[in-house]
Specification:
The structure is a homodimer. Chain A is of the alpha/beta class. Chain A contains 11 helices and 10 strands. In chain A, the strands form 2 sheets. Chain A has an 8-stranded parallel beta barrel with strand order 1-2-3-4-5-6-7-10, surrounded by 7 helices.
Chain lengths: 271, 271
C-alpha cells in the first residue's frame, strides 16, 4: 500500500523550539495538513487563537497531547488528575482534535499493579465525558524504559486489554513505533487492535540511544522496521493521519523548515 | 520465605574496578560465597589461576557471563559466534561454573524476526556441547531498551518459549529483575519458567535512569518490587545463588569493601 503526504502530521514535539503560531505557519508553508498539538504549547498562544489560526491556515489537529497521569498516592490527588483530564477533553473539543492521547503515568509507592488499576479506573471515569464531547481517548503504551517515570502501560497487549475491558466507544489505543517496535507480540497486537486504533506515530530508534528522553531519531536513521509496522497498522484498518513525533535535541536545534522538508522526504521513502 | 546470605553472589559487574584476584579476596573477606564471573575479567588473571584461587578461597562460581551474540549478516560470522560459544562453555566447565549466561545479541540489517531465529538456531547448535561439558545455558531476556544494541530477546515469555522449543536439558532462562520488572506478564512467566530457571539477578531501577548502560541502582534505591519478584522466583522452585549485578559508574567508583557491605545489608532487608 503506498502512502501519500495527505496523511502526514507534524507532532509539535518534533519542532519544540517553534511556538504554535510558527508551527502552524511552517506546516502551511510545507503543505503539511495536520498537526499533533501539545497542551502546554497551545496554552502559550491561547486555545481560541490556536483554533482560529489552524482554521485560517486550513489545518486540522490530528490529536492533542496529553491527558492521563492517573496514579497517585491519595484520593484527592487522583481526583485532581481526573479534573485535569476533563479540562484536556474540553481543550481537544475546542481545537477540533478528534483524539486526546493518554499517557498513563508512573506508579505511586512502587505498586505497579495498583497503578495499573488506577489508570483503568481513571479512564473509566472520564470516558463518558469524552464521548459526550466527541473526543476519543487513545491509550498509548510507552516503551518499558519509561515504566518508572512516565507510564505503567508499556505494551500494546496491555493497552488493548484495558481498552477492551473499559468497553467505551470513546476509548482506543495509539501505536507509536518507538514505544512498541521491540515487542515480539507487536504484529499480533496491531491486528487485535483493529477498529480501535486512534493514532499512529513514527520516528526511529537510534543505536546507541543518545538520551533517555530526547533520543528519538528521524525515520530511516535507526533500527525500526517502519514500513512493515505502517502496513500492519493500515492492514488493521487505520487510515488516519500519521504523526511524526521526534524528541531529540539535535532535531530541535535544526531550522524547522529543514526538519519538515526531511520529514516529508523520509515519510515517503521509508514509512 | 526468608533469605539467607548463603545464597548471595557477587556478580563481577558490580565491582568492575576490581580485578578478579581482588574480587576473590574481597568476597572471602566479606563472607560472600559465590561469584558471577565475567570472561574478560577472568582472562586478565588467567583461567587456571582464577579456578585455583577460587578453590583456595572456598568460593564457587554461580555463573559465567557471557555467551550468545548469535545474529550476524553472514554465515561465516555466525560460525565464528558459535565457535566463541563453544570456548565459553569450555571456560565455564574449567571454572566449575554451572551456568553460562547467554545474551542474544542485536539484529543484523534491521531484521528482528530473522535475528530471533538466528538466536534459537545458535543455541540449538551449542546445546549438545554444553550438555556434554555439564554446563547449562541460561537465555537471559534483556530490557527492551537494549533491543537495538544488545539483545533481540526482550521478554521472559520469549525466553521461555525459546527454551521450550529447543527442548534441551541444558537450556533454561535467567531472570534479572532490572530487565523484566516492568512486564505485566512477569509473574505468569516466572511461574511458567518453573524447573528451567538457571539464575536470578538483582539490582534496582532508578528514576530517572542516570544512564543507558550504567544506570542500575543498589537494591532498595529504586522502583522494583524486589521481594515480590524474589519470592515468585523461589516459589517457582529456584533455590540457587542470587547474583547482585549493578552496572553503575558511581558504584564502581566506590570502595569495593563498602559496596559489598551495603549489598549484604540490602540483600537481607529488601530482597
Amino acid at each position: 500500500m503506498s502512502l501519500d503526504l495527505g496523511r502526514l502530521s507534524l507532532n509539535q514535539a518534533t519542532t519544540m523550539n517553534w511556538g504554535t503560531a510558527q508551527t502552524i505557519d511552517g506546516c502551511a508553508r510545507a503543505g503539511v495538513g495536520w498537526i499533533g498539538l501539545w497542551r502546554h504549547k497551545v496554552a502559550e498562544l491561547g486555545l481560541g487563537e490556536t483554533a482560529r489560526r489552524m482554521r485560517a491556515a486550513g489545518l486540522r489537529a490530528s490529536s492533542l497531547c496529553r491527558g492521563g497521569y492517573f496514579p497517585a498516592s491519595s484520593a484527592a490527588e487522583r481526583e485532581e488528575r481526573i479534573d485535569d483530564n476533563h479540562r484536556a477533553i474540553d481543550e481537544a473539543a475546542e481545537l477540533g482534535a478528534p483524539v486526546l492521547v493518554l499517557v498513563a503515568g508512573p506508579a505511586a509507592d512502587r505498586d505497579l499493579d495498583g497503578a495499573r488499576q488506577m489508570v483503568e479506573d481513571g479512564i473509566r471515569v472520564v470516558a463518558p465525558y469524552a464521548e459526550e464531547r466527541g473526543v476519543s481517548l487513545a491509550i498509548e503504551p510507552l516503551h518499558p524504559m519509561f515504566a518508572g517515570d512516565r507510564s505503567v502501560v508499556v505494551t500494546l497487549s496491555q493497552a488493548n486489554t484495558m481498552a477492551g475491558r473499559i468497553g467505551s466507544p470513546a476509548v482506543g489505543v495509539a501505536v507509536d513505533v518507538y514505544h512498541v517496535w521491540w515487542d515480539p507480540q507487536v504484529y499480533t497486537e496491531i491486528a487485535r487492535a483493529a477498529g480501535q486504533i486512534l493514532g499512529f506515530h513514527v520516528s526511529d530508534w537510534l543505536v546507541p540511544p543518545p538520551d533517555h528522553l530526547l533520543g528519538r531519531g528521524m525515520m530511516g536513521d535507526g533500527m525500526i522496521e517502519l514500513r512493515r509496522l505502517r502496513e500492519a497498522v493500515d492492514g488493521a484498518g487505520y487510515g488516519g493521519p500519521i504523526e511524526v513525533e521526534i524528541f531529540n535535541q539535535r532535531v530541535w536545534d535544526s531550522p524547522g523548515d529543514e526538519v519538515l522538508a526531511l520529514m516529508k522526504e523520509r515519510f515517503l521513502s521509508v514509512c
